[in-house]
Specification:
about 25% strand, four-stranded mixed β-sheet, alpha/beta, binds ligand EPZ, single chain, 14 helices, about 425 residues
């Protein structure tokens, strides 16, 4: 298993370019199942979850071409012949977002067989709201041998009020409703930019969607969707991760090709913690020579503080003057990185959904283990600020959502290498 070796203490200097958003690319690839015409997606990040999605769609009979060379960030998907509308346990267990095919398959093929995702390091993460929503659109759902079986001659438009805000739940039902008979109104929807990006693609495919990006979305069903070309939005979580890398190492970096508008709450919190930033329409410059001050965060649905930035923020405030309280409201078990940061010398007390971080603490290099995607990012950040060498094990987690992270960081002066 690959490991990353990082020698810390170097300020990051220069520019880092942001890739397309993993959490927009995955639903957009699933959306290609809704039509028998080619869908061309650009600015696709080269991360492992994209490869898993390619396998998932190909296993159903779709033709999926991942570009290479100059076209490496482009993919063409043609789901003309969907011979087997099934998402197997083998694939779903490696990537829970595979459940995003459930709605499109029922809508397009009238049936779907999708493995239940099972438990996850950061929480139980059930998909009951996906299932409930599909039933509200008239699908018949049974569960058998760890699989969901869903069927409907044609889905029927209706009212869906989500009990809880769910990102992929909103995306899954949004896709299903595009081919339903009649109008669907969805309330208490997720407002993440990735949801709006998916709706943007679907409308290019001929869907009739209004209100994506707000908590109420209206969809007028159509009988058929066509192919389209669409460029995926930048990855705000990747951008946030590198912005914190600049602040944590006392460096001066420009994060290019991001959308600062999607980072508003993070930038506001960083400024509160003493980090100097400067934005343009598509970049954020971080000048990290200011002393860091403690600042509390509470994770919330968008536009609140993203849970996917919580671990990285924890690494930052280990170096801040004072005590920061981090409250994790979205997932019940998302502090696995705290113990590993403590092994590097951080002072963190856990109390249920709260982590109390006292700083500044001297971080020293150590052998640590990544438990999930964002936890591994926080260990990379801590290692960049630590004295000596850190070895991070199980970095396959980080490859799921960060494109060429060591090359991007080394390009800004980090002493980082991968051991295969
Ligand atoms: C999406 O996951 C993201 N993944 C996650 O990013 C992100 O952490 C999460 O949204 C929250 O922002 C993708 O977009 C592929 P949810 P998702 O449904 O959709 C509960 C990363 O690091 N819930 O919004 O699975 C659930 O347990 C990943 O890139 C139900 O109870 O998250 C959680 O507590 C990690 N029943 C809360 O809602 C349901 O049917 C929010 O989960 C669905 C969700």
């Amino acid at each position: 298993m690959d490991k990353l070796v990082i020698r810390g203490g170097e300020p990051l200097l220069g520019t880092i370019r942001i890739s397309g958003a993993k959490n927009a690319a995955l639903p957009c690839m699933a959306a290609a199942l809704l039509t028998d015409e080619p869908v061309i997606l650009e600015n696709i990040p080269q991360v492992r979850d994209i490869e898993t999605t390619r396998k998932l769609l190909a296993a159903m009979g779709a033709e999926v071409e991942l570009g290479f060379g100059r076209a490496q960030h482009r993919t063409t998907i043609c789901a003309k012949n969907l011979s087997d509308p099934e998402a197997s346990y083998e694939l779903v267990k490696t990537m829970r977002a595979s459940t995003l095919v459930l709605g499109p398959l029922v809508a397009r093929c009238g049936r779907a067989r999708v493995s239940l995702p099972g438990g996850c390091a950061i929480g139980a993460r059930p998909i009951d709201l996906h299932i409930k929503g599909l039933e509200q659109l008239g699908a018949k759902i049974t569960q058998d041998h760890g699989y969901i079986e869903a069927s409907a001659d044609r889905l029927i438009g209706g009212e869906i009020v989500f009990d809880k805000i769910t990102v992929t739940g909103t995306e899954d039902l949004l896709m299903a409703a595009t081919l339903a008979d009649g109008e669907t109104i969805m309330q208490n929807c997720a407002r993440e930019p990735e949801v709006a990006d998916l709706a943007d693609l679907l409308n290019k495919m001929g869907a009739k969607i209004e209100g994506a990006g707000t908590s109420t979305i209206k969809i007028k069903g159509v009988s058929k969707l066509r192919g389209a070309k669409h460029a995926i939005i930048p990855d705000r979580i990747e951008a946030g991760t590198f912005i914190i890398a600049g602040a944590l190492t006392g460096g001066d970096i420009k994060v290019n090709g991001c959308d600062p508008g999607h980072l508003a709450v993070l930038l506001q919190k960083l400024n509160e913690a003493g980090v100097k930033t400067k934005q343009t329409a598509d970049s954020v410059r971080v000048m990290g020579d200011n002393p860091l001050k403690a600042a509390d965060i509470t994770t919330e649905e968008y536009p609140g503080f993203p849970t996917d930035m919580q671990a990285q923020y924890m690494a930052l405030v280990t170096q801040a003057e004072g005590t920061s309280i981090i409250t994790e409201n979205i997932f019940e078990n998302r502090f696995m990185h705290a113990q590993e940061l403590a092994r590097m010398g951080a002072n963190i007390q856990l109390d249920g959904r709260q982590a109390i971080v006292a700083g500044p603490a001297h971080l020293s290099g150590a052998q640590v283990i990544a438990s999930d995607l964002r936890a591994s990012a926080s260990l990379v950040l801590a290692a960049l600020a630590a004295s000596g060498e850190t070895m991070i094990d199980r970095v396959y987690h980080i490859d799921r959502g960060y494109e060429k992270i060591e090359a991007k960081l080394a390009g800004a002066g980090a002493r980082i290498r991968r051991i295969e």
